[in-house]
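Recall from the previous chapter that SMILES is a line notation for molecules. Here it describes coenzyme A.
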Amino acid sequence: MHDEGTSSRPPEIIDAGPAVLRRWRAADLEAACEAVLASLEHLRPWMPWAADFSRASQAEFLAGSERDWESGVAYDYALLVDGAIAGSAGLMACIGPGGLEIGYWVHQAYTRRGLATAASAALTEQAFALPGIDRVQIVHDKMNVASGGVPRKLGFREIGPRLLQERPPGGTGMGVAWEVTRGEWRREWLHAAR
Ligand SMILES: CC(C)(COP(=O)(O)OP(=O)(O)OC[C@H]1O[C@@H](n2cnc3c(N)ncnc32)[C@H](O)[C@@H]1OP(=O)(O)O)[C@@H](O)C(=O)NCCC(=O)NCCS
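With both inputs in hand, we obtain:
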């Protein structure tokens, strides 16, 4: 996934039904900080980076996203609803060859509207459109019931425990991994999420 043409990367803008996924830009700094600060209470238990969140750490995230996009390490998107930042979702090349992992968080005021599910369905679809990708995973702390609802709804299979790189403050550090393969993925899930 380097620079052998546009098809080796997902699109910069993805229609995810109730939301649009748009590649993060440096210019999103203020709006992104507002969204995170309004959601801190709900992010802190599960997102280790939320503990010492600051404008500077968000600027670092945005700069890192740009580098990761270029190198193919990760494709991070702002989740937009009517132009407002309603969360973040992305594909990460951290599970070995042929696989991508999805990560997400949703603004506290936008939860339980199917946004994480819709974003994950759209990202799964895009992952399988990339050359050489044949499995997509979602991993969450075993205590994070809300996060587990997303892969379950999309027909991912639970494939077992996974030690997380970092223990989130609200969790145990032991994760649950879910996977869908290219052969198992059905377009109906994309529509079910809309
Ligand atoms: C986890 C999170 C991303 C879910 O986002 P969301 O957009 O609200 O999720 P969806 O509306 O797509 O919900 C999908 C399913 O997940 C489950 N779910 C979502 N939120 C839930 C909650 N608070 N409690 C129990 N189940 C929940 C449900 O099964 C839901 O389906 P339903 O609404 O039809 O019952 C959001 O709660 C969040 O940002 N949490 C904090 C950060 C985080 O945990 N990120 C993931 C780290 S692995």
